[in-house]
Design the sequence.
């Protein structure tokens, strides 16, 4: 009889441990989902003014590559699926090309942030895109 009572007590302890492990796992899963709440970003082709379109394409591809490295951002192909829009623009200036990045809300197109930098040479795109992707796009 005592042996049967001890077996029931062990069974109850195992069920309690199983329940607690299950609760801890669910809590970890919930926290991970909250932390990894990746924002969905739509990025249309770059707009160019007074600049050859190839430079706009280069900036677009380069930005996509850098954004793809970020675990907090997912690029989507349709603006309807996105939370935000990343707009790229190249504008000819007297001394170089102004590179403009704008992050806007997809729903109402309101501005979240904007970043502008002058590129004196096409090689300047890499450090500009690197800085923006690390500091702004999240």
Sequence:
């Amino acid at each position: 009889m005592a042996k049967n009572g001890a077996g029931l007590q062990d069974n109850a302890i195992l069920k309690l441990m199983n329940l607690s492990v299950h609760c801890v796992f669910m809590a970890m899963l919930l926290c991970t989902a909250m932390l990894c709440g990746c924002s969905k970003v739509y990025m249309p082709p770059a707009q160019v003014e007074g600049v050859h379109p190839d430079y706009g394409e280069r900036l677009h591809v380069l930005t996509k590559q850098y954004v793809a490295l970020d675990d907090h951002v997912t690029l989507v192909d349709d603006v309807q699926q996105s939370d935000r829009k990343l707009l790229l623009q190249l504008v000819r200036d007297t001394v170089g090309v102004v590179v403009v990045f704008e992050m806007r809300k997809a729903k109402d197109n309101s501005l979240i942030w904007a970043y502008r930098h002058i590129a004196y040479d096409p090689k300047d795109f890499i450090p500009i895109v690197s800085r923006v992707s690390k500091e702004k796009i999240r």
Observations:
- The chain is about 45% helix and 30% strand.
- Residues 29-36 have pLDDT under 50 and may be disordered.
- Helices lie at 2-35, 53-68, 125-135.
- The two ends are 63 Å apart (CA to CA).
